[in-house]
Design brief:
The complex is a heterodimer of chains A (about 260) and B (about 260).
Chain A lengths: L1 H5 L1 H39 L7 H11 L5 H8 L2 H15 L2 H15 L9 H31 L2 H9 L4 H31 L11 H10 L9 H27 L6
Helix pairs in contact in A: 2-5, 2-7, 2-10, 3-4, 5-7, 6-7, 7-9, 8-9, 9-11, 10-11
Chain B lengths: L3 E10 L2 E11 L4 E5 L6 H8 L7 E6 L2 E5 L8 H8 L2 E4 L11 H13 L9 H18 L15 H13 L5 E5 L7 H16 L4 E4 L3 H7 L2 E6 L2 E6 L1 H4 L6 H11 L2
Classes of the chains: A mainly alpha (about 260), B alpha/beta (about 260).
Chain lengths: ~260, ~260
């Protein structure tokens, strides 16, 4: 066993896998840092109640002294921000992430005159993958946030209002923590999925841990035909998801002091 | 001059008229009980007073100032509505305490946030916050909850939670304290402690509007009773008239049904 770990081949493999795993970790953390706040913006977008046509249509009907028909009721209820956001949610959640990665990396170069907007080489692949992951995960998170915000009973908001709080104060002082408590379990699921989803970056040859392991099968690191490094990547994923699970479990426990 | 004057309030939800021509007034230090069956518009009326619903027609005046006029949009600006709400306190049927805060913090939170708007808050921060906390403790003591200040709502019984909610509403010193069926969500053995607290407030001449199903309580505590049915005030007057000797058929019918369980 010790001999196995001391052999030059194992040393080379482990060092390559470590390097690949650093890329995996970078992708994981950049995605979280981008998607967690962006998801909140998207959640507010899908809950946006702006109905620009409600007033003019009502005014028009009032002037003509007409009862609203089916079409005018539809116009009154039309909320463009919410509608567009929900359409995007449907598209992003309804198509595979691997397709989104490929589309974001290749399509701009194919349709834009000046060629691809991404930097050359590994940096370009990393940037494109990060963009794809942040968008994809932000839309998933947004639906979890929406459920969390809408799950807080309306009585909480009303209690804040009658106590003279502003909407901002109600969100930050009353709703937010209750929402966080509600969303920690579903967010934990998504974050653990993200640990493994990072491997999809392999689709555009980002040099993450799976890519690094595969290279020992194909031979582009001077060694070819060995398959155990690919299996060994499971150890990295398992160890990392164990740490993530533990940290999220701790957060859940820290919020145990109150019940919603 | 009455402390509260409600004139000609009307409210629709879509095509359904839930309040029609509601007018009444209330003197400082008096308790008004609103009774009536479910769906009669009692809660909606209370919500209108607290600006949780906007009446379609009518005016609401406090201390002679018109604070809401359905025909005058300048009385309905959001920033002003926030200030005007502070004339009223509201105790909800389902308490609506903030679960993440202790009983004491539930009582002090809103006052702290309001205090932050004072120009001298930064220079006197510690002094102001200490004062708010002290007042919060005193209010909880008054509610018989001095030893529960550090408890979270989930650690309190329904009756205790409702008493915290009353303390929370009192902390902002509202002119008029409103109760929306304060004992309806409680087990029967817990209603007594809440009713005793409200009775105590009435004895101290706190101006109150109480929507309630507890007839005996309304009779004992209220100076004035309104009976509502189908969104209108059917009968109003002192409890000796409305509850004990109702003039209207509908009131009699309601009270009979009530006493028959």
């Amino acid at each position: 066993m010790i001999e196995f770990f001391q052999s030059p081949v194992t040393q080379t493999v482990l060092s390559a896998l470590n390097q690949g795993f650093i890329v995996t970790l970078e992708l994981f953390f950049i995605t979280l840092i981008g998607a967690i706040p962006l998801g909140l913006v998207i959640a507010f977008g899908s809950m946006n109640r702006w109905a620009p046509l409600a007033r003019p249509v009502r005014w028009f009907l009032h002037r003509r002294q007409r009862e609203p028909g089916r079409f005018s009721r539809w116009l009154i209820a039309l909320r463009p921000v919410s509608l567009i956001t929900r359409l995007l949610v449907w598209i992003v959640r309804g198509t595979p992430l691997i397709l989104q990665i490929i589309a974001i990396y290749y399509v701009p170069g194919l349709v834009m005159d000046g060629g691809t907007p991404w930097p050359r080489g590994e940096a370009g692949r990393m940037t494109a993958v990060c963009v794809a992951f942040i968008i994809n995960y932000a839309f998933y998170f947004s639906e979890i946030y929406r459920g969390g915000i809408q799950g807080v009973p309306s009585g909480q908001q009303e209690a804040g209002l009658v106590l003279g709080m502003t909407k901002r104060q109600i969100f930050f002082k009353v709703t937010l923590l209750q929402m966080v408590k509600r969303i920690v379990p579903p967010m934990s699921n998504e974050i653990i999925t993200l640990v493994k989803d990072t491997s999809l970056a392999r689709a555009i040859a980002l040099q993450e841990v799976i890519w690094a392991a595969e290279s020992f099968m194909k031979g582009n690191q001077g060694i070819s035909g060995i398959w155990w490094p690919l299996m060994f990547t499971a150890v990295y994923y398992l160890a990392f998801s164990a740490i993530v699970t533990m940290l999220l479990g701790r957060l859940e426990k820290r919020l145990d002091y109150f019940q919603v | 001059m009455p402390i509260l004057e409600v004139h000609n309030i009307e409210k629709h939800f879509g095509k359904t008229r839930v309040l029609e021509d509601i007018s009444f007034s209330l003197e400082q230090g008096q308790a008004l009980a609103i009774i009536g069956s479910s769906g009669s518009g009692k809660t909606t009326l209370l919500r209108c007073l607290n600006f949780l619903e906007r009446p379609d027609v009518g005016t609401i005046s406090v201390n002679g100032d018109v604070i809401f006029d359905a025909s005058d949009p300048s009385t309905q600006k959001e920033a002003e509505v926030r200030r005007k709400r502070l004339h009223f306190g509201l105790v909800f049927q389902s308490f609506n305490l903030f679960p993440q805060y202790t009983a004491l913090r539930n009582v002090t939170l809103a006052k702290e946030l309001l205090a932050q708007e004072q120009p001298d808050f930064k220079s006197r921060k510690k002094e102001i916050l200490d004062q708010i906390e002290k007042e919060g403790q005193q209010l909880l003591e008054k509610m018989g909850l001095a030893d529960r200040a550090g408890h979270y709502p989930s650690q309190l019984s329904g009756g205790q939670q409702q008493r915290v909610a009353i303390a929370r509403a009192l902390a902002l010193h509202p002119d008029i304290l409103c109760f929306d069926e304060p004992t309806s969500a409680l087990d029967p053995e817990l209603t007594g402690e809440v009713l005793r607290v409200i009775k105590g407030l009435a004895e101290n001449h706190t101006t109150m509007v109480i929507v309630t199903h507890e007839m005996a309580f309304a009779r004992d505590v209220a100076d004035h009773v309104i009976f509502m049915d189908g969104g209108v005030i059917v009968e109003q007057g002192p409890p000796s008239q409305v509850i004990e000797n109702p003039q209207e058929e509908r009131t009699r019918h309601f009270l009979e049904r009530y006493s028959n369980g």
